[in-house]
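Renewal narrative, Specific Aim 1. Our central claim is that a sequence can be written position by position from structural information alone. The example that follows is taken directly from our test logs and has not been curated for this report. It begins with the structure tokens describing the chain, in the order in which they were read.
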């Protein structure tokens, strides 16, 4: 039995994907999540064979969820589900540990192929994503500056970075992460310093540019 974790913040999307997946008698959706943070928890709890993650989820986006799942449960094969067919999102997904990248507008056609490939230890990219990846990979290697600075953030700093960009206060972040507001403020200061930013507005613009929030 192939055990699958399905994470998407849209209930109807999850229901549609589940129907496609469970048409296969030896495939079972063993857990569902509506945000990235819960997807990480579920991955650690149930150890599915494959995790299908929407790229644009609240609290923790799919790329950061993939990064954490890859570190905590390396055996899980991760497929990223996205509306974005551009090299920034595709490259970041691969760097985070995804073995496949599916576009939502072709998921009904590509989902079975992607899960089959992942189960066999292979990679799968929707045709449009594969074209972008091949065309832009070399160019993306030369466009480093901003990206390199973002990669210096720790996992915790990336979590707090997204929550700040989503407009959450220090107290709200502290309550969510079960840390003190002073600790959040310290992380905020480190984030601003590392990224050479000076305000929440700049954090939001940076987050949109980097594809951290959508």
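The sequence written for that structure reads:
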């Amino acid at each position: 039995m192939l055990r699958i974790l399905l994470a998407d913040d849209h209930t109807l999307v999850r229901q549609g994907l589940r129907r496609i997946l469970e048409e296969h008698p030896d495939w079972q959706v063993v857990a569902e999540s509506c945000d990235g943070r819960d997807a990480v928890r579920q991955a650690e709890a149930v150890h599915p064979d494959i995790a299908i993650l929407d790229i644009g989820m609240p609290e923790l986006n799919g790329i950061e969820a993939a990064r954490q799942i890859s570190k905590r449960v390396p055996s899980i094969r991760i497929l990223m589900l996205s509306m974005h067919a551009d090299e920034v999102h595709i490259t970041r997904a691969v760097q985070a540990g995804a073995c496949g990248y599916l576009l939502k507008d072709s998921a009904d056609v590509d989902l079975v192929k992607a899960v089959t490939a992942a189960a066999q230890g292979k990679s799968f990219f929707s045709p449009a994503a594969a074209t972008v990846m091949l065309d832009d990979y070399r160019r993306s290697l030369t466009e480093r500056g901003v990206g390199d600075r973002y990669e210096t953030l720790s996992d915790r700093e990336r979590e707090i970075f997204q929550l700040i960009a989503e407009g959450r206060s220090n107290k709200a972040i502290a309550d969510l992460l079960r840390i003190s507001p002073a600790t959040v403020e310290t992380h905020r200061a480190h984030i601003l310093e590392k990224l050479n930013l000076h305000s929440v507005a700049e954090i939001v613009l940076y987050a949109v540019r980097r594809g951290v929030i959508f």
